[in-house]
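hey so i finally got around to running the thing on that chain from the lab meeting. sorry it took forever, my laptop kept dying and i had to restart like 3 times. anyway pasting the input first so we r on the same page abt which one it is
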Amino acid sequence: TDVLAEYHGRISHIMVDEYQDTNVAQYLWLRLLTGPDRNLCCVGDDDQSIYGWRGAEVGNILKFESDFPGAKIVRLEENYRSTGHILAAASGIIARNESRLGKTLFTSAEEGEKLRVNGYWDGADEARAISADMESMQARGDDLSKIAVLVRAGFQTREFEERFIAIGLPYRVVGTRFYERAEIRDAIAYMRLIAQPADDLAFERIVNVPKRGLGTASIQAIHVQARASDKPLMAAAIDLVTTDELRPAARTALGGFCQDIARWRDTAGSLHHTDLAKMVLDESGYTAMWQADRSPEAEGRLENLTELVNAMQDFDSLQGFLEHISLVMDGDSESEQGEVTLMTLHAAKGLEFDTVFMPGWEEGIFPSQRTIDENGAVGLEEERRLAYVGITRARRQVYLSFAGSRRIHGQWQSSIPSRFVQELPPETVIEDVAQGLGGGIPFGRATPAQLASGGYGEGASGGYGPGWRRMAARRESGTEAQSSFTPQGNAAGFAAGDRVFHQKFGMGDVVHVDGDKLEIAFDRAGHKKVVAGFVSKP
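ok and heres what got predicted. didnt touch it at all, straight out
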């Protein structure tokens, strides 16, 4: 009590910024420090409370008036950044939340352009289309530094990074680039060592990852052996385990590691490189290491590893993939027109851009299925606040998009648009979804009843997103923009030997038909399995 009284005597006024991001401990501490004069000023926006995963408690700001009766509330509702349509769209989404104080944003700016909602075949198609839009903006002289791509999860940056590098579009990643992330570099080091045992850098990176009980002395002994025998570290390690130079435990651990690398190398000749990667990550204990990790970043690292395996699917061989990685990691570019910013929605808070692209508006990605599974309705409301934050980063233009399918663990899976697409006020958006998008019932011919009863787009939850239902209804009434490309929805019209065309991989010959998937020998891209709806007969 004496200590508290002393602090009350020292502190006459308290001001707290970003009050919606305070945690329970900070809240309790603030209640104690606020003296009898109650000279407290808190600034915050309950609709921007997006850090619950690291302890922030939105309830702190929601109960401010009851905690401090008589406090003067000043609502700052005029927005000086965004256009009318952008504010109306963001307000339409956030109004669905029940746990909020409520406010009505307005602006003296013009209504501006409506938000664009675009549907694409898959993630690669989405990245290509967004990149093409950016190239057009660059060609007309737009400042690339005023353009951002905001993603829900870090793994989503990979396809955009590769696409930007391929077309020479300057970009920067807030945080770490995909192939420079620690878990990705570790996984690639495993694959490099399997492909090239003389790669000393790869050996050093993963010889004790996960922890194998090899300390500094053991690693030093390997280096001494390598110098003495003029051999690569891997060969020196194999020699060392046959001696008594190491402690028994270290010798056993190092011997097991060497045997694993040799076994995986032998397997590489008969196993597809994506399956090899999954085997290595599992059998090495690397995946289990991150599954056991309880840090907030662990789940994202696991998602990145899954995305790495997805990336490998685009290449015929492990060597081809590793060569591609070398090019990607050297692919920096500069431009007098600045660089496109690529970042997560969480990292974008407080920033603003002329144009914002938000890909991956699909159930399971955004809103995050993990967040909903762990936190239920509370988690969904935080995801909705994240959508609100993302949209309001834009000054002039917003492009939202989703893909009809994505590759997960090397397998194509149907996706359904985010429920947040449904929550956008119709008068604020222009929707453009490719006719025939996906498999089963071509989207352009599906009725709302068909979507509700089954036959297309069923996800892990066993249901259909409201975004699909609304867009289907608009197509039924003829009010939705149509695309001229209408691929077949299944493999019924294809047979082995057919000559086909794929927008990404070019011309090829059908080798095998398996349900709605085709195995195709492409002229340039080699053998690949693709969904039949993605190819056409020339």
